[in-house]
Amino acid sequence: MAKPTPITAVKGFRDVLPEESARWRALEDAALRVFGRYGYGEIRVPVVERTELFARSLGETTDIVEKEMYSFADRDGTGLTLRPEATASVVRAYLDTGLANRDPQTRLAYRGPMFRRERPQKGRYRQFHQIGVELFGRDDALADAELLMMLMEYLAVVGARDTRLELNSLGDATCRPVYRERLRAFGEAHRAALCGDCLRRLERNPLRLLDCKVPGCRAVLAEAPLMRDSLCAACAEHFAAVRALLRAAGVAFTEAPRLVRGLDYYCRTAFEVVAGGLGAQNAVGGGGRYDGLVAALGGPDVAGIGFALGVERLAMATAPAAAAGPTVVTVLPLEERAVEAAFRLAAGLRAADLAVVVEAPGRSLKALLRTADRRGARLAVLLGADELAAGRATVRDLVAHADRKGALPLDGTPAALAASVRALLAGPAGT
C-alpha cells in the first residue's frame, strides 16, 4: 500500500510552536496589564460575522472588501465572513449587548486571529493576530492623546525596538468632501500614469488612491494635495490640541501628512507605529478616530477611537524575552518499578506550581538526560533502585552537572518539595 501524501498547511496559514506562542502570550498579557491601568476590560468577539457588517463599516471600495475577505454562504443562505479586523465586531457587540445604553463611555480591549487573503510575506499571513482597544463615547483631544500615550507606554514595556509614532488628521464630514474633490481633480489630471485599480478608485472613492502600493502611482501621488491644507477650523483645532497634549506628556511623534488608513470609517486623528529593521512592511500597528461608525451600524451618534497591533510584527520588533514561568523539572524513572513513585512525586511538584515532565523508563540514563536537557529542564530527578530503597530521590543539576543524592523525599508534601527544589535552584548554577 502506497504511503499517504502528507497534508500541509494552507498557503498563508501557519503553525505557532510553543516557544513563539510563549512570546505571543507574554505580549498579550502585558497588553492587558497596561491597558487595564487605563480602564480597559477585555472583550471576546466571534471569529465569524455577517458579511454586511464589514461591507458597511470598512467601505465597499476598500481592498479588504473587494479582494481580501474570506466570505461564504451559510446553509440558510446567510452571508458570513471570517473577521478581517475587529473594530467593526466590537462596535457590533457594543450595540448588540446593550453597552451603548448601559455605559456609553466604554473602554474595551481585545486579542485574537483575523483573516485576509493577502499575499503572504515576512510578518504577514492570511491568518494573523491582533491586540487592540476601542474607546467609545469620547470625541475630545484628551481621549486621543491618552490613547496614544498608552500605546507608546505599552511598546516601551514590551521592549519594542526603534519604533516611531506617525500622526495625521483625516478631517471629518465637513472638510473631507472638499479634500476628496481636490484629490479627484489631481487624479484626473494624471490618469495616464495611474494603474487600473487607481482608475477605479478615482471614480468610486479618490481617497483610496493614497493606499496604492504600485511604485508608479506612489511617485505620482507624492505630489498630490495634502489633507492638512483642507482641514476645517474644528478639525485643525482638534489636531493641534492632540499634538500639544502629546508634547506636554513627552510622547514623541512625527507628523505624516500623507498618512491614510485603509478603511473608510476613519476621521480626524489617524496614526501608525512603524519599527526599524522590518523592511518595507514596517508598520506594527495603527488606528485612529471613527466618530461616524457607530451610527453607520445602526447605533447612536457616539464617537470612537482605537488601534490594533499585529502580534506577528510586534514579536519581530521586540527582543526575545527570557524564559518565564515555573521552573521545568524532569522526573526520570530508571526502571519500571520506579514509575509509580515518579508519578506521585511529579504530582506533588506540580501541586507546588512547578512545571514537571515525567519520562518513560526503558532508555539509558544518558539518553534520558539528553531528553531532559532538550526540554529545557534545569533539574533532573533520578529514581532508581537505590532511591526507592532510601525513599529519597537524587537530583542532578543540568547546568552545574552535579548530583545531590537524597535531595527530595518521595513522600514529601508539596510545600516541602517546593522548598527543596528552590534551595537547589538557589545554588551556584542558579545565581
Query: Into which percent range does the helicity of residues fall?
Result: 25-40%
- Let me know the largest β-sheet: 8 strands, mixed
**How many domains in all?**
2
Radius of gyration: 28 Å
What is the CATH topology assignment of the largest domain?
BirA Bifunctional Protein, domain 2
Low-pLDDT ranges = none
* Backbone structural class: alpha+beta
Number of strands: 16
The mean pLDDT is: 87
CATH superfamily of the largest domain: Bira Bifunctional Protein, Domain 2
Span between N and C termini? 57 Å
Measured by DSSP, the beta-strand proportion falls in 15-25%
CATH class of the largest domain: Alpha Beta
User: How many H/I helices?
Assistant: 16
In spatial order, strands of the major sheet run 1-5-6-11-10-9-7-8
Shape verdict: elongated
Descriptive overview:
This protein has 431 residues and is α+β, with helices and mostly antiparallel strands. The chain folds into two domains: 18-175 and 231-317, BirA Bifunctional Protein, domain 2 (2-Layer Sandwich), CATH 3.30.930; 328-423, Rossmann fold, CATH 3.40.50.800. 38% of the residues lie in helices and 22% in strands. The protein has 16 helices and 16 strands. The chain has helices at 18-37, 51-58, 63-68, 87-96, 99-102, 141-157, 176-189, 196-204, 215-221, 233-248, 293-296, 311-317, 339-351, 365-374, 385-390, 414-425, and strands at 41-42, 48-50, 70-73, 79-82, 107-115, 127-136, 163-169, 254-255, 267-275, 283-289, 304-310, 328-333, 355-358, 379-383, 392-397, 402-409. The strands form three sheets. Strands 1-5-6-11-10-9-7-8 form an eight-stranded mixed β-sheet. A hairpin with a 5-residue loop joins strand 3 and strand 4. Helix 1 runs antiparallel to helix 6 (141-157). The model has no long low-confidence stretch (mean pLDDT 87).
